[in-house]
Design a protein that fits this description.
The complex is a heterotrimer of chains A (339), B (396) and C (170). With 396 residues, chain B is α+β, with helices and mostly antiparallel strands. Chain B is built from 15 helices and eight strands. In chain B, 56% of the residues are buried. In chain C, a hairpin with a 6-residue loop joins β5 and β6. Classes of the chains: A mainly alpha (339), B alpha+beta (396), C alpha/beta (170).
Chain lengths: 339, 396, 170
Amino acid sequence: MSNLSENIELFMGNPWGRGVVLSIAIVTVVMTLIAWTIWFERKFAGRMQNRVGPTFVGPFGLLQPLADVIKMLRKELIIPRGADPFLFLLAPPLTLFFTLAGLAVVPFGPSIVVADLELGVLWALAFSGLLLFPIWIAGWASNNKYALLGGMRAVAQGVSYEVPMLLTALVPVIQCSSFNITEIVNYQIANGWVIYWPPGPGIFAAAIFFVASLAEANRIPFDIPEAESELIAGVGVEYTGILYGLLPLSEYLHTLISSALVAALFLGGWDGPFAPGMHWMILKTLTLFVGILWIRWSLLRFRSDQLLRICWYWLVPISMLTVCAAALSKYLLASGGSL
Amino acid sequence: MSIAMPSPFVADPYLDIDDYDSDADLMVLNLGPQHPSTHGVFRIKLILDGEIIIKAISYPGYLHRGVEKLCEKLNYAMITPIVDKNDYISPMINEQAINMAFESLMGVEVPRRGRWIRTILAEMQRVASHLIALGTFAMDLGGAIGGGASLFMYMFRDRELILDCFEELTGCRFHYNTHIAGGQRHDLPEGWSEKVKTALAQITQHLEDCKQLVVENPIFADRTKGVGVITQQLALELGLQGPIARASGVDMDLRRDAPYHCYDEVKVNVVTESSGDTWARFMVRLREAQESIRIATEMVDGVPVGPIFAGKVVKTAIAIKIKEGQSYVAVESPRGELGTYLIAGGPKGISPYRLKIRPPSLHAISAIPYILPGNNVSDAIAILGSLDPVMGEVDR
Amino acid sequence: MTPKLYQQIAPLLTPTVDADGNALPITPEQVVNFGMMVPQNKHLALAQLLKEAGYSIYVTVVASHWEEQTVKGKSAPDPEHFEVATVVRHPGPGATTTFSWRVRLEVGESIDSLVSLYAGADWQEREQYDLVGVRFDNHPDLRRLMMPEDWPGHPLRRDYAIDTSHFPWR
């Protein structure tokens, strides 16, 4: 027996071993959580709209996501005539792949992270940027003009909103002098959350990062690439069954990961007034997620040119200012207040 | 003529488009009959340069059911339920338009109580129709899964209150068949006026909430102001009336200017705006709904006593006979002027010879080739939603 | 509707025919707002006159098909013909009124289109062409509106079958 426990310690001590175990665990937990966040969103939306949401399948409709997944798995996969079959089939699993890859660096607890990379922030933002490719591929490969319009809009929006996202992600990096997300959280635990210390750049940076990640995830009010009333599901219009299901699934996952990133980078991660730990991280992530749902079910959507105007005229200049302010305040703090 | 007509359809759409960048790669997109936002089966062929519309050609006729031909075969009493399904959003007003045409040729005058009830029903129906217009417009702007759907649900919940009142009166939530040539079939039940007043008071409150939720939202203002402008001249030239023309500054309302039913006994405040964009049309409908609530609340208390039907009760469908004559009668529907041109004289006088219905939505849709070019595809959806067409009456 | 307008309208109307077959022109006092017959060549002139007099809203046009029928008191039956009724509206201010007139067309005749005066006539006239088969001259784009482009026949004619064994649809 001691041989077994020694082997487990050896296994967990090895970063590769830890990585394998934690990735299986985190992916399983997160994917299950996503299914029930979809349930929660439908109940929440129902209550906001003066109705109840799903109630039939299971108590309180709790088995509804299961029913939806089973339904989707059983649907016929149709490849439209004229579509590029390889690209058509490649795009939805690729979105899921890139989103899950971004999950690898999000720390849920003091040592609960799949890969504690030195450039964690960069990894997360890179994969959220890479997500544009599968969406664009899907838009092209569907041989459908609505999908093409959706894909083009998604690329325009994604490329534009990456700029404020990257810039404002620099604020906690500058403040905490590290790209490693675990170190950023530890710095916040020691010195105060980025959102309020130093006062000024943090709150603006957090707000802009939040808005930009909403735009990256194509959530209302930025969901022009999949505007249902105009483009009837945008890039996903020709997809059937589980291939279609993967597209909103990866959108939800991206939203959840963005909330987790905001919580980790700006809100102190697993810090809390008492008993710091994984539960605080999950609480903050889910609170931000509920905020995103609330926004989705109350607001109308922007038109694509208005969306881009907001990004380039407002968000980019303000995020540049926040970066400068963060750098200035770091310098002031480091040099003890003298200029 | 004072306005330039858009050039007609030619088989090759590239041929007669005058000014576009010849390097541009034009794309033809069908906002096809199956689409969540075309307000019924309706096809618009858009010729796009990127996302800007260069030309829009519209094809109605997908919902053509041959109603006018059918009415030549049916007796006068049987026509009412068929005509209910024309403008299926406001059936009461359809019925009233038809039956007023029959009464004008029969020479009967509906008793005062019948006319009073007709006025109340018309106003309540106008409120219900505008609630749908506002709700579906928000849904077009914000998505059927998203913020627009929330407003849509609120508006439909309020409409259910009105439909409950109608159900108590006629037995049907929708497609009532409560009007007949000569008066009404159903008289007001006990306690109906209290029920109506409660319902309308709740709707007033919710329309105020709607204003706060949507109208003061900067996203809504950005999406609707300056979009899809119909100038006053275009509105007059195209024969548009109703909220669309009033939003462009045309101060005309058939209830005030050519009163029928009991509209000469109440004060109708006509709501106009001057900008003619989708914002103006939304605001005109919102305020008109509030105005109709005021009129209905005022009138439901003072219903005069008396008969609701002129003459003896109609026992058989062939009892209504009109030998000959022609007439044109117009009412103010929530979409504009709903007119009925009746040529009587079918076999034995029990059915019409020719019944033509003048649908206001037909003229609303004919404005599309004029106002869509130059806008985004997103704006096209918003404009189509703001025109509030009902394909049932366009195609009949 | 000023008296002056009635005077201008009167010469454009179809004269009535008395018992001897003499044509009696319509006097301005006999002009009413609804249902006067106008000869086909005066149709556009009347519409122009009304538009200049302020009847700026085009309401509708109604074409109807009349089959050959015997008329009481006349030896020759009334031949098959069409009747086109046009309605225009004066927007006010104050009271709004309509003016409507009818034009009788024999088989094969066509009527002037009012599209050059009122843009709203466009689709209404297309619909009447589609359903009844009356042609409108100088209409920029006279093609079918409701029925498919290649549909044979005009459904709202009296002799278009609905109760026969031949199904009119394909």
